[in-house]
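Minutes, project check-in

Agenda point 3 was the complex the collaborators sent over. CS summarized: three entities, 798 residues total, and the question is how they sit relative to each other. Sequences were read into the notes so everyone works from the same version.
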Amino acid sequence: MRVITLLTDFGASDPYVAETKGAILSRCDEAVIIDITHQVEPYNIKQGAFLLLLAYKFFPHDTIHVAVVDPGVGTGRRGLVLKTRNYWFIGPDNGILYPAAADDGLEQYFEIDLEKYPKIGGETFHARDVFGPVAGELAAGLEPAMREVDVESIVKLEILATRFEGDEAQAEILHIDRFGNVVLNIDESGVPGHLRPGCDVMIGLGGKQYRARFVKAYGDLPAGSLLITFGGTGLLEIAVSEGNASSLLRAKPGQKVELRISPSSQ
Amino acid sequence: MRVITLLTDFGASDPYVAETKGAILSRCDEAVIIDITHQVEPYNIKQGAFLLLLAYKFFPHDTIHVAVVDPGVGTGRRGLVLKTRNYWFIGPDNGILYPAAADDGLEQYFEIDLEKYPKIGGETFHARDVFGPVAGELAAGLEPAMREVDVESIVKLEILATRFEGDEAQAEILHIDRFGNVVLNIDESGVPGHLRPGCDVMIGLGGKQYRARFVKAYGDLPAGSLLITFGGTGLLEIAVSEGNASSLLRAKPGQKVELRISPSSQ
Amino acid sequence: MRVITLLTDFGASDPYVAETKGAILSRCDEAVIIDITHQVEPYNIKQGAFLLLLAYKFFPHDTIHVAVVDPGVGTGRRGLVLKTRNYWFIGPDNGILYPAAADDGLEQYFEIDLEKYPKIGGETFHARDVFGPVAGELAAGLEPAMREVDVESIVKLEILATRFEGDEAQAEILHIDRFGNVVLNIDESGVPGHLRPGCDVMIGLGGKQYRARFVKAYGDLPAGSLLITFGGTGLLEIAVSEGNASSLLRAKPGQKVELRISPSSQ
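CS then shared the predicted structure for the full assembly.
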C-alpha cells in the first residue's frame, strides 16, 4: 500500500485526472491515490506550489507527491523526481515542486528521461504519459528512467514569508479559501510575543482601514465579527466569524496588506 | 480494509480535505476513504446533517462516518464519537451527526479528549487535527482518547418530516439537487394510499399554483413536464422530466410548499 | 484489488455519487473506485459517451467502467453489461456505453434483470440500486442477475470522426475543456502528411476567420498565441498558449468549424 497524491490545474469536468490515475494504476494497482486539489487556476504555477507546500507534510512517510501545472509541457522543460527527507516529489521543472521539497529537505535530484515514455496523441499531456507512469513505477518498486542531476540546475521558486517589525508588518495575500479567509505570508515565527488573543490589529487594504480582533478560534467572536487568527494553514488569516472576509474587504491574492497592532489594545 | 467517509463544507479548491485524508492515512494506511460531499454551504450544519442522513446507510457495516461543518471549532464545543447499531459517527457536537446517528439507533456516546490531540498552527482545523486522527485510530483498531458521556448532554438537531392530512400537506423544501429536483420533507409513510401514479397534485409555492403529475419515474412523462415522484432520496420530489424544476418554480431550500391532491385526478 | 470507474451527471454537491460507492463497497470491499467525472451536463448522454470513450483505455485490464447519464431511468429502458476485449461496461441501454465498448471490441452483451435488484424509495436511482450493485458483484467474482442478448438489440450511438480532404476539413466541436481548448472530431489518421509543425491553418467559426499555427506543444508559441495541435485526447485541438481559445473564439460544443491549411505556410 503506497500513497500517491495528485495536485493539478485539470479541474473536475474533463477526463484528464482519471486518465492520470489509470496510468498510475496500470503500473501499480496497490497505489492509494489521493487528490490534493485539481482546482488550481489554469497555468498558475505559484498557486500550485503554495497549495502543495501546505498539504504535503500531512501524508505518511514515503508518500509520492505528483504536482502538474505545466504551461511548458512538450517544450524543452525537464521532468523531475525529487527525493526529500520524508517524501518523493514528481512533476515539471518549473518551480512547482520546489517550495515543498525544499521545506522537507532536498536530498536527491533526478531528471526524467522523457524520451523513454511514449506520448499518446501529442506532446501535451505529460501527467498521464510521463509523471503518472513514473509515480506508478516508483510505487511498484521499479526504477523509473531517470538520472541524477545537480541541484543548481533545477528551477527554484520562493514563497516569501515576512514578519512583524515591532508593531507593524507589510504582508501579502497568498490565498483566499472557500470560506473567504484571507491567508497572509506570516507564520507564527513572524509574530511578536505581545500580539496576544484580545489584541486589536489595524488592517490597511485597498486604501481602507479595518479593525480586527486577534483570537485563537473563529468562533471566539460573534457571527459577523472581523478577526485575525492562525488558520489551519499555520499562517495568519483575516476572517469573519461565520462570514466571508474576502467579500467584506474585496481582497484578492497578490494584494499587499498593512498590519499594525493597535496601541489601545496592548 | 475499513471504510471512512468524509462530509464537510471545505470545497474542492483548498488543501483541507487532502490534509484530513493525510492525517487519517498516517494512522491507518489500510483505510478506504470515500467523499460524501465537501460542497455543503459554508457553516450550514443543518444541510450537512441532512446529506449525511441520506447517505450514511448505503455504506458497509462498521463504516466510520466523519462529518465536519464546524463554525464553533476551537471554542468550547465538544468533539463526539457516536456508536450506533451499524456505524460510527465522528464530528463536532453541534447536531450534524445527530439525525443520521439517531436514525440508525444510538448505542454509545463518547466525548473526545481534545487536549490529547495536538493542533497544528491554531485551533481552527479539528477535521485534520482531531476528527481525522480519531477516525484513523478507530480504523486501525486503536482506542482514541475519549470517555463515555450521557446521551442527554449531546446537541440534538431534528429534520422535521411531515405528512398528508387527507388530500393536503404543508411541506418544506429540504434540498435542491444538481438536476433542480426539489426535495420535500415527506417520505413514503407520509403519503396517503390514494395518491397513485397518474394522480395530479396542485403545488402552491411563492404565491403561485402549479399542477404536477404523480409518477413512478422521471421519464414517465415527456421532456419538460412538471411531475412529482419519490426520488432516490426516498423523499417526495418536485421535478421536471429532463429539465430543472427549481428554476421553473424559483424554489429555494427552506421555503414552504402546499400540496393538494387534485380531485379531478382521483 | 479490482478497479471500478464511475462517470455520471450527478455533480459533487449531492450524496448520489457517495451512495453509489457505498452500494459497490457493500458488495466488494476490495474495489478501488476511481471517478472519471461527475460533471457531465445533466441528461447529456452524448457528452458522457464521448468522455468515457476518451478515458476508458488508460485503465488496467479488466477494469469495470460504470457510466450513468440516465434520463430514462425507471421507464422501459434496459440495463446493460457489456464485455469487451479488455474491459467491462455497465450502464443504461441508451448509447452511453456504446462508443467506448465498440472501440475496445465488443464480445458479449448482457441485459440486467432489473426486477432482481430492489429499488429504495422509488424507480429513480438505478446507479445506486442496480448498476453499482452489479459492478460490485462482478468485482467480487459473483454472477449478476443478467442474461445474454443479441448485439443488434442494443442502442447504438456514434461519435462521428471526420478527416481532411486535401487542404480542407469540415469539423465539429466535440468538447471544450477547462483550459478552453476546443476539441475537434479529427484524429491523427484524419490529417494529411503535409500538415507539419510550422504550417498555418485558417479556422472558420461563427462567420469569422482566424489563423492558427500548427505545433507539437502548447508552449511552442508565446503566451497568447492561437494554435492548433493534437491534445492529450489524441484529437485535433484549437488552443491558446497559456490562454483560453473558447473565450477568444466564442466556441461551443456542437458548432461546425472549417479548417483550411494555408497555402503560404506549406
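Noted in discussion: Chain B is about 20% helix and 30% strand.
Follow-up: revisit at the next meeting once the mutant set is ready.
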